[in-house]
Design goal:
The chain has 5 helices and 12 strands. By secondary structure, it is an alpha+beta fold. The chain has a single domain, classed as FomD barrel-like fold (Beta Barrel). Strands 1, 2, 3, 4, 5, 6, 7, 8, 9, 10, 11 and 12 form a 12-stranded mixed sheet that branches. A hairpin with a 5-residue loop joins strand 7 and strand 8. 35% of the residues are buried. The N terminus is likely disordered. The structure holds magnesium ion. The site of magnesium ion has 3 residues, from strand 11.
């Protein structure tokens, strides 16, 4: 269904010699919980996800509610990477509608995510999401009109856990954005620091998130996977309507307790 054969082969060869689950395990095991995600009861269902099938990505808020749910189509589901395409116009559910400039104030002024409505909103560009088992970040490619590659986006987040409908993770506020030519910068630092002041995040958590960001930057600057793999050349083989969320997009699959808490 998708023209990815050359890319897939290159990725598999490049990654085979690299250790899996490097993440934070080398720093004392604070994220040990992510390592047993392979024993999650629904793993076998995720493993069966084939290219072209729908997967639902969910961001679980600190209070355990689903802050965002968005469907995409699987491009590759291998030991190396879980890659999927989120199409322009895909309808998501989100607790959002907070303007970027208001996000810091919203940390205090809005009720907890669990008490807020999850609105239907369209996602507004084509993106490729690359998630890595056990890693505390995902790496996105964001495209503009005509599939013009505009941005790399290192979304710092909890190592994902698998669910019957896809994967759950938890956003860590701080991000790394980069241009295709490699110029990068931190994003949402102010919001991230305010979370620390408010006690939403611990000092230890913050140190780990900064480390995760530096790992994204290191890979970017050294041209390491996935930055060297030609993902910006991927295109869907044909156009079809974006997938839709399953009816149980909001269901609690028990992931809340399996995602590391930001207060730890
Ligand atoms: Mg983020």
């Amino acid at each position: 269904m998708y023209i990815v054969h050359k890319v897939t082969i290159r990725l598999s060869v490049r990654r085979r010699s690299r250790p899996v689950n490097r993440g934070f395990t080398r720093q004392g095991g604070s994220f040990d919980r992510h390592e047993d995600c392979t024993s999650y009861p629904y793993t076998h269902r995720m493993a069966s996800k084939q290219p072209g099938e729908t997967i639902t990505l969910r961001y679980v808020a600190y209070d355990g509610s689903v802050a965002q749910a968005i469907p995409g189509r699987v491009i590759e589901n291998s030991e190396d990477v879980l890659a999927f395409h989120i199409a322009d116009g895909t309808v998501m559910r989100t607790v959002g509608d907070v303007a970027p400039e208001d996000r810091v104030a919203a940390l205090e002024s809005l009720p907890p995510p669990a008490e807020r409505p999850k609105l239907e909103r369209p996602w507004s560009n084509d993106s490729i999401r690359l998630h890595f088992r056990g890693e505390p970040f995902s790496i996105w490619l964001l495209f503009g009109d005509g599939w013009k590659f505009n941005w790399w986006y290192g979304n710092l987040e909890a190592p994902y856990v698998e669910t019957p409908i896809g994967i759950d993770t938890r956003d860590h506020a701080l991000d790394v954005a980069a241009r295709p030519d490699g110029r990068w910068w931190w994003k949402d630092e102010e919001e991230f620091l305010r979370r620390l002041e408010l006690g939403i995040d611990s000092v230890e958590h913050h140190a780990r998130v900064w480390d995760a960001g530096h790992e994204v930057i290191r890979r970017l600057e050294t041209g390491e996977y996935p930055f060297d793999a030609g993902w910006d050349q991927w295109r869907p083989a044909h156009s079809e309507p974006p997938p839709t969320l399953p009816e149980n997009w909001d269901q609690d699959f028990g992931s809340h307790d399996r995602l590391p808490r930001t207060t730890d």
